[in-house]
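As a warm-up, study this chain.
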Amino acid sequence: MKSGIDNSEYAARHQKARVLMKKNNLSALFITEPTNLFHRVILESEADFGWVIVCIGDYDPRQSAGSSQPDRRLKKSDLLWVDMGVVIHGYHTDYCRGMVAGGASSAQLEKWGKIRKILEAGVKATIPGIPSSDLYRIQVDTAEKLNIDMISWPAHRFGHGSGLHTTEPPYISLDDDTILESGMILHIEPGCIEKDGIYVLEEQVLVTEGGSKVLSHAPLELQE
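Now compare it with the structure written out below.
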């Protein structure tokens, strides 16, 4: 799908949600509460509408809401993963970020940093004229060098297109050889599932004649 979306307001909404979560005592929240806080931020934005998936530590692929423990409280050192999207003038946005209550451990920072390197490799490789499957291979090859098992991520693809729908072709998978063209919107989305949480990052990028332009503006670091 070819389109032009500037989600520069996205970072501001993400930051506002973080402020609200801290104000509401992040380390004592049920998982439903940060979800409601993100929805509140979306409602107060200029977006037409939006959606949020919030997980603490675990992931249940049978539930579209993500976490299999909705009554669980967020504890200090828990990894809170957010997959969030909004629709602006009919066009969809989508990206993932993470937070750790009380600050991330060195092990969490190391794993998150590796996923970021895979993401950056995928973004750098996003240029017109190559098949979408090349972006899959580049991310998997980078992950293997970093000893990251991305097969644990149940999507079994590491990105997708978007436009009038949140997820649409081309898909960044081994069996999608769609040739990338300038003007396409892609999402680079590497990650893995660990016992302590979901380590998945996602950037929304515009394919340009000279490469790609990142449209997601929220910080990539694990937020506190």
